[in-house]
Amino acid sequence: MPDSGGVFTKEKMNEMYRTMVRIRRFEEKAQELFEAGRVVGGIHVSVGQEACSVGLCSALNLDDAILTTHRGHGHSIAKGTRLPEMMAELFGKATGLCHAKGGSMHIADVSKGHYGAHSIVGSNMPMAAGIGLAFQFEGKGQVAVAFFGDGASNQGAFHESMNLCAIWKLPVIYFCENNHYASSTEVGTSTSVEDISIRAQAYGAPGITVDGMDVLAVNEVSAKAVQRARAGEGPTLIEAKTYRFYGHSRYEEKFGSYRSETEWNDWRERDPLILAEKVLGISADEKKGHFQSVEAELAEAIDFADASPSPKIEDAYEDLYA
Amino acid sequence: MSEMTYVEAINAALHEEMARDEKVFVMGEDVNNERISPAEAGLAEKFGAARVRDTPISELGFTGAAVGAAMAGYRPILDMRRIDFMMLAIDPIANQAAKLRYMLGGQVKISLVIRAPEGGGVQNGPTHSQCLESMFLNVPGLRIAVPTDPSDVKGLLKTAIRDDNPVLFIEYRCLYDQKGPIPEGDYTIPFGQASVKREGSDITLIGTGSQVANCIEAAKILAEEGYSAEVMDPRTIRPLDTGGLATSVRKTGRCVIAEEGHLHGGVGAEIAASLQAAAFEALKCPIARVAALDVPVPVQTKLEAYVLPNTEKIVAVARDALRIV
Hints:
By secondary structure, chain A is of the alpha/beta class. Helix content of chain A is 42%, strand content 11%. Chain B is α/β, with parallel strands linked by helices. A seven-stranded mixed sheet of chain B has the order 3-2-4-5-7-6-12, with helices on both faces. Classes of the chains: A alpha/beta, B alpha/beta.
């Protein structure tokens, strides 16, 4: 079903829209909870980038793998990560996905094929190559996806791992969310090419640039990359042009000191949720239903997190060695 | 008992473990060339090219890939060629492998072995002669083994491969052609168990890696002078068998630690601190250390010999300790 590449049932389209709403509302809620002092450590929300996570993850099966970044809540949710346990991790509770050891930047749910958010920029790409290698050994056609940003495409890990995937034809998808800023650094000042997708040519692999605000456009190119990978044809680099509507992390106001309000407003006109209503054919009633349902899910997740215990002090040594 | 060299023992362990578990595989530069990689001799013919992979020169990339494969349930054995090159892969080792199980709340196991051949004495120069285990000794989540003879290297490598945790497996290249007896059959040696390489009562000489042999030679020289030296080999430095080493120090009251790595912040610094905490009341004199001088290892033969530790330096330091009654 997920490889259909463009033709979806009404049920599937509603499921995709609901997942985007779930991400949007989780991120807005997480920001509020952080400002209210209820979240441990920092968060990096991905409001504005929902079409990327949902577009790609809608083309994956449960036993495909993703690895993401510090800005990974959206990918985590799109892959089916358990919401109550995710919220508990943000609250620093013992029931959190990472037992309160990793926090927002290390959300993982291996039971859903989510091999973790990784906070060293670029570090997830070689790991995705390795999971792809394991999948190649297994021979069941599973694929691994590495999500990363424009800044990460300048890390050596990107170049080395893409070369490795190309020579060994590993079933890996490199998904670059080019939101034009790496913290405060604008991509044009750091990156030698305008379209990051062109870098795939250096590794003999296909590279595609796509509108990252359009969930169906993202899904279409993703499905093709997934098919290539499953067929043993090797890696694909997808670059989705997108934008984050909040700051880099919790300390910044909406557009920060390094982005213009004009630029921010222009991108807001292409809000992926509003676009998704159109391209997925969501009615006003359906939209209302999705938002109500998601509010209830979030309330349940927050209740679970609130009711959960904090870790015991002795738990500091838990999970160090197998 | 049969006899084989240190590198043949490594090769035997690899053959046996790859036959035992199909998830075990080998990766590294030139692992399919028998001259460059004697440790991997015959593996590709027996197990196929997919499980014995030559990598491009991409230490960061392929080490990170090994971490990923381990996360997905496989058991990679990396051949880093030289620990000097491993410096390019510190992120996947210290930030990922050592911490992923902990950071992800126990959801993954990093069943990874990183074989790191190292050491100097053959005029290979500053960046091809280093002993860097002390750099990683400070990273919780890693296990570090430092085998010094054929029977230990085989047993410890098997333990490392079967361990579900990331193991930095240090191999001293100067020991590769040393022959020694090997027990028959499948045997493993547990981590965290020091071994008594020579019994004695007047002074404890603790050697790691290449210096164990020098400690044994030093003990023979000291014996001619009427002193009885006990030689201890920790075999793993994380976990470190402080209890076993302390038992020896309580018996002798004197301790010299010898390592090939640099003195400042070396393995000996950790062993000395642990031992004085465990056995202070038994010490008749301060714990002494013999190590490489704190300069990069130079290529010229005499300069290199001056910088590196040797039997004579161990004997001299031991005599100073023995003179304190």
